[in-house]
Amino acid sequence: MDTQDRRHSGQPREDIASVENEKPVIDTFGILVFLVVVVEIVLVFGLNLYQRSRVESLTTQLQEASSALRLPENATLNTQVSEVLSGGDKLKNVLSTRVKWSKFYTLLNGITPKNVKLTGLSIADSGTFRAEGNTSSLSDLARLLVAWRDGTSAISSPFSSISLNSNGFSDSGGKRVVTFSISGNVNTGVLR
User: Fold this and answer.
1) If DSSP codes are grouped into helix, strand and coil, which group holds residue 100?
2) What integer pLDDT is reported at residue 188 of this predicted model?
3) In this structure, is residue 192 part of a structural domain?
4) Is residue 118 part of a domain?
5) Domain check: are 89 and 110 in the same one?
6) pLDDT tens digit string along 100-129?
7) How would DSSP label each residue in 8-60?
8) CB atoms within 10 A of CB 177
9) Cα separation, 38 vs 12, whole angstroms
10) CA triplet 75, 78, 84: central angle to 5 degrees?
11) Are both 4 and 62 inside the same structural domain?
12) Is 160 in contact with 135 (CB distance < 8 Å)?
């Protein structure tokens, strides 16, 4: 039906006029997006100015505090702070070179054959050690020496050198046992 037919048919012309008079939706949406972007730009600019003034005030405070620390009455405090800072570095060095003796005993237990009994173990600050003990045979003593020197396939030896000082036979509870004394050096690098 065209316009001529509507006039003659008696249909109202308001339907056609109402569609033609409405604003397009895109214009309203475009204006809204533009306003949001403008507000965001203003906010970012304002925050930037605020942060810049905050940095300037903190810089001024830092310079004032720095000049106050340089005063002669604060020389003792500065010396103490320097000593504390250097002490902290020394403490870090000591802690990084600290030997974990629990690891030593775990490794020692893991590589020592089961039928070997240690009766004494002493370790000097320098890392040298001396161990005394007994076992049931000379072949068990040989296994101990090899295990302490080389470690096992799964566990590395905590010792860097091993030497048999002495061995002999003794009676222990009616049994003949092999006694021994071994000395060497603990590999403290493995225990850190």
Assistant:
1) coil
2) 81
3) no
4) yes
5) no
6) 888 989 999 999 999 999 999 999 888 899
7) HHT--SHHHHHHHHSPPHHHHHHHHHHHHHHHHHHHHHHHHHHHHHHHHHHHH
8) 18
9) 45
10) 145
11) yes
12) no
Q: What pLDDT shows up at residue 111? A: 94
3 state SS of 133 = strand
What is the reported pTM? 0.52
142 vs 52: CA distance, rounded Å = 76
DSSP classification of residue 72: G
Q: How many CB atoms lie within 10 A of CB 107?
A: 21
Share of the chain above pLDDT 90, in %: 48
| 158 and 187 Cβ atoms separated by less than 8 Å | yes
Which tokens sit at 37? 């972007």
Backbone angles phi, psi at 190, to 5 degrees: -75, -25
**Residue 139, domain CATH:** 3.30.1360.100
What 3-state DSSP class applies to 183? strand
> What is the arrangement of strands in the sheet containing 175-186, beginning at the earlier edge strand?
117-123, 128-135, 175-186, 159-172
Q: What is the pLDDT of residues 57-67, one digit of tens each?
A: 999 999 988 88
Q: Are residues 56 and 19 in the same domain?
A: yes
Range of the domain at 72: 1-98
Same domain, 1 and 92: yes
Tokens of 45: 């600019």
All residues at 6 or more sequence positions from 3 whose CB lies less than 8 Å from its CB, including other chains: 16
